[in-house]
Structure formats: structure tokens, C-alpha cells
Amino acid sequence: STISRKSFESAFYPIVNSDLVRDGQPYAIPLGMDSLALIYNKDLMSAKGYTTPSDDWTELFEQAQNLTQKTATGTTYQRVGLSLGADEDSNEFWFDIFNLLLMQSGVQMLNSTEDAAVFASDSATQDAVEYFQSYEDEELWNASVKKDVALFLEKKLAMYIAPSWRLLDLVAYNDTYDLGLDIGIAPLPQLSSLEEEQVGWSTYWAQGVSIDSQYYKVGWDFLNFATQQEQLRLVFEHVTEDGTRAFGQIYPRKDMKSEMDSNEYLSVYADEVSTSKGWNMVDGGKVRDVFKEWLNSEIDAEDAQGQVSLIITDQGLLTSEP
């Protein structure tokens, strides 16, 4: 790129620097960021005596147990406490949630040269798997449950882990159809509420310019321009000015985070972005397929590790030079 490593590092969040810098140079740049937060139905929570979701995963599980309600036959759910399971038809963002658990557990996913997966032998990996699977094992969720976004809109889901773009849909539907949902937004739990380090998980698109393009410099000059504070601020104001959209994207620049802190919808998400960790999975779609088999006990951790290693070596890693 035509942006120096120093200016890139000083302006953008640590996760962006970790993800998008190769050989000392940025090779892509985000125009916006997203992360995960705990969206919850305040009325369903308060009916069981809860003010907010817990900031500890173990306590959150207990809340989900108390909030889950089955039919008289016990075969279907009248209400789900928290939707969590490896099936995107029901739990839309399960892959992000599971990766978050791995990052919070401190699991090293790849070796130092990032050409092989090494997560299988870490006991913390198994802890993350067991926690994730416990929602289905303890019958708080199964794959027959309706997709979480629909369930939440029907007031049959108490807590929902999702990015801000999905929250935007919830707010819009709630207002348009006068659903009467009282929506709360809480930070994601940590593995222990006593731990000092907070770890989040970010999701975002990044834009780049082909190094073979005759417009390489012009393209990067435009991206540099588009990610300046003034331009990002103008876009945010433009998409929200007529009132049809509740909020814009989280700014990708850490030097603009203070502007998100007072936003009733995005402050929690911006906090998560600032503490996010990740790993270079190279092809997220293929890794998702492997993890789905793993979490559904079709393969074990060693098999999953081997398949992820193959994905990494087959696809290769991006470099900033031809």
C-alpha cells in the first residue's frame, strides 16, 4: 500500500494491524468494523429477576437454563434462553461465537510460522468445546429451533449473540411493525468475571488494490482518503440523517473510538472491537465446515486440526509483494 506501517498502526485497531499487515506493509484497509454483543429482551429477563445478562459464561449458562421453557411434552421450546449450537439455520453466528471462546481461552491456533494448526492438544480447547456443546447436551437448544433472529422478534428468545448489523435489523423491524420489544445490549461474557483481560471477536470487510493494477497508487490514495476521520464521520452522518437507519458502521479507527462511546447501540460493540483477537484461518468458509463437523462430534479435535492445516497449506498466505 501507499500508507506507511507507522501511520496505519497508530490509526487503526490492533486486530486490524494483526490481520492486515504482511511483510511490514498493510495490504488492505477496512471502512468499518463490527463485533459481537449480547442482545437481550429486557422483559423476558426481568420476568425471571435478571437485570442484565451475566458477564461470566458459567453464570450466563445458568441464566439460560432459568429462561428456557419447554412445552408440556418436552419436545419443543416455548422460549429459549440463549441460542447456541453449530447450525447456522438456527444459530446464525455460531462460528464467530466458538472462535471467541477459543480466543478467550488463550488457545494457540497455529504454530509460529502459521503453516500448521496446533490447537488440538491444548486442554483449553476442550473446555471451549464442552462449554459450547453444553447448551445442546443440557437441552437448552437443538437444531430444530427456529433461526435466532426470527425467534427474538417473536419474543421467544431471551438472549442473542450477534453483530451490530443484525441489531440494526432488529431495531428496524421493532419500529416498523411496532413489536414492542424492549431491547438491551450487553458486553460479551468473559471466561471469568475476575479476569482483567477482556477479549472480543471482530468481523469486518477490508478493501485492497491489486498490486498488478495500473491504478495501484490511485486506488490506495482513494482508500487512504476514504478512511480519514472526516470522511468516515460524513458517511456515518449521511446514513442516519433521515432517521430510517438507527446507526452507521463502527469506525475502523481507534483514534475515533471516543465518538462511539456515547452511542446507545454501538458503544458495547466498539469496546469489543478494541479488545478483539483473531487468527489467520486463511479460508473461513472451509474452516467453518470443519468446525461444524467437530462440534457436532462427527470428527475429533485431532481430525479438525489436520484438516485446518491442510486448508492453510492449500490456500497459502497473502503477502504484500508479488
Automatic annotation (TrEMBL):
Gene3D superfamilies: Periplasmic binding protein-like II (3.40.190.10). It comes from the Bacteria. InterPro entries: Bact_solute-bd_prot1, SBP. It holds the Pfam family SBP_bac_8. This is Extracellular solute-binding protein family 1. The lineage of its organism: Bacteria, Candidatus Dojkabacteria.
